[in-house]
Write a structure and sequence with these properties.
By secondary structure, this protein is an alpha/beta fold. The protein has helices at about 35-45, 75-80, 115-125, 140-150, 155-180, 185-200, 205-220, 220-235, 240-260, 265-290, 295-315, 320-335, 340-385, 435-445, 465-480, 495, 525-535, 540-555; strands at about 1-10, 15-20, 25-30, 60-70, 90-100, 105, 110, 125-130, 390-400, 410-415, 425, 455-460, 485-490, 500-510, 515-520.
Length: about 550
């Protein structure tokens, strides 16, 4: 529920901070005092559009924040968790509007787009009034309200699962049927491509080995000449061979080592070098023995490489990608060859899924039909209590054209006739805002205690009524306040007297400007305000006595 509202530099409000509790809270005041300002400010935190005209004159920006408790709202908590915005059983919506018209929105301190703020706000507050958005006008909300009243939660979950299964299998069937339409021509091409790639028999790492072998065979003369020169310089040239020169140097240094032992480390290094040079010379001679000029093998390697590269160009892939391509084509070929059998089996599964769906949808349709009659009767009776004598209410269930939908096999629409002799019309076509507010009140009272939006705001639902009807409206709102949090803007003393809490809104002017203020009133202050609402400017003792009686009666009831 709404627990706190902070407003700064918004319209006529300089600074305002209010706390709210469970129950019915009444907001009253003189015409023009600014009652609508509070609702407009709250509406901004719920995602309404704003412009620079809402910023108090002379201020840089307006700021509004609204705090809500979410501990008893699992749907809201899940919504916040999904977006990583959850904050310890509390939700704070904040909105700023600059004098330049630019606005920013925040959810629990994190910047948020306006659409996200609106999506969350619709789960927290529902505003009923002549000039406000009405969630009850939405067909999906009407359907949900009927299902909530009937307790269809588990059945709706089962229906949604059956629908999703049927839809998934249908998509799979469509894919197979699409493939089947191209099956014959595709099968012929796939078989040819697979046979061609399998005939190539390209082995793992074969391409790299072939490239290396081709480089050796194509350059055998150069390799032989270079290796022979190296062998000669190392060992075979009698006087100038590196091994010969190194041996001579070693003998001289060994003689000198007898004179100065400090040459021993150098001699050891040279001895090691001589050994390495002799081993290198042996390796080169062995290499030359193995190195053959084999034009026939070179031709074989070139043909093999040519076949690989030619097939890679044909399939427009790199040569190294041919083995993965073969595996992919083999899988597609197997899928197509087995598509016929799978089509038959898949169709059986689709039929079973649709049967499950229709069974659940049938139960839902029967439950909706029963609940619609009961709910419509209760709401119609409640309309009579709210000054709409002769009015009628009905809930129509119309079959949908689709084979299946996630919400069942019928659409739900609330229809109303506000006056005797008038035909039933969709709730969205009701012309009078006051009538719509009272119908909404009748619906909300009946559905109270079931799943729904926790905070309800009624903006002047008492327009056009008075006397006993106004008192009945007040009683309905008070009863609704036992289940939900209710905020009610009213001009009727009979409605105001029924509130659990009472806020008085007033406008004050001085040389510095005009400002709207709000205060929580009780006891004699509340008696005076109810008396003002009953008797106008001149408040008599009789008016005060009548106000006390109305308040006392409301408390006793």
């Amino acid at each position: 529920m709404l627990t706190h509202l902070y407003i700064r530099n918004f319209a006529l409000v300089e600074a305002l901070e209010l706390s709210f509790e469970q129950g019915m809270s009444v907001l009253s005041g003189e015409t023009g005092a600014g009652k609508s300002i509070l609702l407009d400010a709250l509406g901004l935190t719920l995602g309404d559009r704003a412009d620079s005209t809402v910023v108090r004159h002379g201020s840089e920006r307006a700021e509004i924040s609204a705090s809500f408790t979410t501990e008893q709202l699992p749907t809201v908590t899940a919504w916040l968790e999904e977006r990583e915005l959850v904050m310890d059983g509390e939700c704070i919506l904040r909105r700023t509007v600059g004098a330049d018209g630019r606005s920013r929105a925040f959810i629990n301190g994190q910047p948020a787009p306006l659409q996200m703020l609106r999506e969350l706000g619709e789960q927290l507050v529902d505003i009923h009034g002549q000039h406000a958005h009405q969630s009850l006008l939405k067909r999906e909300v009407q359907r949900q309200l009927l299902d909530d009243y009937a307790g269809h939660g588990p059945l709706l979950k089962q229906l949604a699962q059956s629908f999703q299964q049927w839809q998934r299998l249908g998509q799979e069937l469509a894919q197979l049927q699409r493939l089947a339409g191209e099956r014959d021509s595709r099968l012929e091409l796939l078989r040819y491509q697979v046979e061609e790639l399998e005939a190539l028999q390209l082995q793992e790492n074969e391409l790299a080995a072939l490239d290396e072998e081709h480089g050796r065979l194509a350059n055998v003369s150069r390799l032989q000449e270079g290796a022979q020169r190296a062998a000669a310089r190392l060992y075979e040239e009698e006087e100038s061979a590196m091994v010969t020169l190194l041996d001579r140097m070693l003998r001289e240094l060994q003689e000198l080592q007898g004179i100065d032992g400090a040459l021993a480390p150098a001699n050891e290094l040279l001895e090691g070098a001589a050994i390495q040079l002799r081993e290198a010379a042996v390796e080169i001679r062995h290499y030359l023995d193995r190195l053959d000029n084999d034009p026939q093998r070179l031709n074989i390697v070139e043909q093999r490489l040519g076949a690989i590269h030619e097939l890679a160009r044909k399939h427009r892939v790199e040569p190294a990608q041919l083995p993965p391509l073969l595996e992919q084509l083999q899988q597609e070929l197997a899928q197509l060859e087995g598509a016929g059998g799978r089509l038959d089996g898949l169709q059986l599964k689709i039929n079973a899924a649709l049967a499950d769906y229709r069974q659940a949808a049938g139960k839902l349709s029967a439950g909706r039909a029963t609940a619609a009659k009961t709910l419509a009767q209760l709401i119609g009776d409640n309309m009579q209590e709210l000054g709409m004598g002769g009015g009628r209410f009905d809930i129509t269930l119309a079959p949908i054209k689709e084979i299946a939908s996630a919400h069942g096999q019928e659409s739900v629409e609330f229809q109303v006739s506000a006056n005797p002799g008038q035909p039933l019309r969709p709730l969205s076509k009701v012309a009078s805002g006051g009538e719509l507010s009272r119908i909404s009140l009748a619906i909300q009272v009946i559905s109270a205690g079931r799943e729904g939006i926790p905070t309800l705001i009624f903006d002047e639902v008492d327009v056009g009524i008075g006397g006993g009807v106004a008192e009945r409206v007040g009683r309905q709102l008070r009863a609704l306040g036992q289940e939900r949090q209710v905020l009610c803007v009213t001009h009727q003393p009979q409605v105001a007297a029924q509130g659990h809490h009472h806020f008085r809104i007033s406008k004050q002017s001085d040389s510095t400007g005009t400002r709207t203020t709000v205060e929580l009133i009780a006891d004699e202050q509340r008696v005076t305000e109810v008396a003002r609402m009953s008797g106008g400017i001149d408040i008599s003792e009789q008016t005060l006595s009548h106000a006390r009686a109305m308040l006392a009666t409301a408390q006793q009831q």
